[in-house]
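User: Fold this; tokens only.

Assistant: Input:
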Amino acid sequence: MSGGGGRSGAAGALPDAGRGADAGGGSGGSGGSSGMGGTAGNGSAGVAGSGGAAGVSGAAGRDGGAGSGQAGAAGSGGMGGAGGTGGGAVIKNDVFWKDTAGSLMYSQGGGVLRAGNTYYWYGVNYGGAATYAANPANKNSDTSFVAITTYSSTDLANWKFEGNALTYASMASKLTMSQSTWIGRVGATYHATTKKYVIIGQYLGTPDTQQFFATSDTPNGAFEVQGTQAVLTNVVNNNCGDQSIFTDDDGQAYIVCSSLSGRSNLYVIPLRPSDYLQAQPATKIFGGAGREGNAMFKYNGRYYACSSDLHGWNASHAYCISATNILGPYAAEFVMGNTDKDFSHVTQTGLFVTVKGSSQELVIFGGDRWSDFAGNGIGYNQWTPLTFVGTTPSMQSLSAWSIDAAAGTWAVAPGNNFVLNPSFEADRVATNPPAGWLTTAGSDVQDTHSGNFAWQLSGAATVHQTIADLPNGTYTLSTWIKGTASGTLFAKGCGGADQSVALGGSSAWSQLSITGMSISGGTCDVGASSTSGMTTLDDFTLTKN
């Protein structure tokens, strides 16, 4: 797995999941081999050891200034406040997720709805998703519509395929469309009076984007299109660019979206209270820079509308505005903490899941990685927990973490990669330095071990990053290399003796590692340097043994 979570902020490190000695007294049972992307798909977590004490919230970083053109970065919350758990279901990022039957999951640009104790996830299966998963060396532009899929889960890590909510055939019987017609940005809600589950999404009709509305008697049944809406009152250019569905605590549902063509206005649009099959007049909540990937969550009575840059299919910071009333007024825009160093774990904002547990309320950031169309890594869905310092949220960029959905608690899981932007994919263009890294020299290149970019050292050059909030323990640092430069892979300032190994390498990709590294004190600077020659680096990992 690539992708991971070193993070800034002066927080105490969280305990590991599944390891009682780290998480608190007792010994944790080992988890099953499932979880998202696991090959078994339906293994069960072992019996948990006694949970550890809650992690201490990190001190808030200094708030960035709002500035005139770009939002200031929010203070980083560090990695605290989640509470240690000795077990739980494991969410693994940077892999293609599989359902409980072991089949690849296809759900992009969607949303999650809770019905009772079960979560239902609706998203789009595009023609290019299966193609890219079969050969992730080649991105494609196949956005042909296959279906809107439905998956269900009680633990938010293991998902059962319930079937297709809508297929091309069922939609084409109600709408004028072809297989290439854009269908996307879907979400779902429940109307208590009509007792109907409602899916709302985008349909590229005539002359432009429209909303479609479909209903079902059950959350996992077949849905039927009930109609479309071409004009949204008070919305610039009549309809939405990107959008999602948000259901408030009182059951009222809303479309949260940016304006079509330019996307420089954000709106909250209530759905018709009688049946949710029509959108009511919109309220503008933001105007300024173009934003997409619009999604909303509510935490401690405060509404957060978040979105991404206009980067097409590529990754972005997460920008947010917040208010105590869903219709505003909203405070100044800010960059969500920790999303600047690896561009939201190489995703753009897609959805949020609020888990109201018995111990605490947890918000999950569901990032869309459009890798089938951008070629920027492995996997389509990257889910990470949010932490809060006061009213300021921070995303914890993790490649493996455990969740207890009943309690609402989470912890870093064994196998997590603590390196940020380890595959140099966060930036959508060649840049120096790459996001999350510091360099003295070098350049992005497209002769890669995976994805679009790798980092090349030539002559005297260094690339490195300082990772914070690391639990004490023994680690392995690895990278893939290609070339024959003189130099070292190194780990410095980790609480013990600095360690390094000669780069070596050859004309083919090979993996180089430093094993048995002892880290204490919470921080470690990792990277590589060359003194002569040329070598290319990709897919760094720092994992706790």
